[in-house]
Specification:
The chain is an alpha+beta fold. It contains six helices and eight strands. The strands form two sheets. It has a five-stranded antiparallel sheet.
Length: 239
Amino acid sequence: MKLFDKRLFILFMMFGLLLTVQVRVLSKGVKHVGVVNLQETVKAVEKERAEVEQLKQSIAQFNEQIELYNRQVDDTDVVVQLEKRRQDLEKFVNITDVEGPGVIVIIDDADRELIQGESGNNVLVHDQDINIIVDELRQAGAEAISINDTRIVYLSTEIICVGPTVKINGEQMSAPYVIKAIGNRKYLEAAITAPSSYADFLSDYGLFVDVNTSISVRIDKYNGDLRSGYMRYYEEGGQ
């Protein structure tokens, strides 16, 4: 019985020592976390999560772009869109041939006799006459205009008188002048035939003015230099 008591006593002693060591180890590993520290930790975690989500979205967008560029060239949506954009730009900067509904206007010198003392200039077509007709067609919505198959470009085309003839884009021309315009046929025709139009004024002086509508008017591209006196390309961050 005494041997048993001794063994039992030794077991309790060993158990007590182990328990004491365990408590000390645990007490060293436990640190006090305040409310402020906890809030800061939560904020940091949320910030990291937001950045991760943003990165995931960026990766997804880049993957979509890479997928587009990796397709066959003939089947690439990007190439199709860029080609359409190029064609639209070429049409509106007048560097490609165009076709569409519109009108064909013919203006010619008058064939009547001069009244006694009347100036011969009254029966000739002048640069200002052509300029005003072109402006009225533009105001009526003309998208493209040519004179004697020479493309008219805003701010780049010069129409000036040279004696009884007219120089357009540096090329000397004489009457009759065939003005083609692409746009809404009804509006363009009305700009020429309206009772108060400039063409009506020219007719009163005996000049020949005729207008016909067409479902297909072709206008050739502009071959000269596009001029700009003040505009320049804008570059981000440039001076």
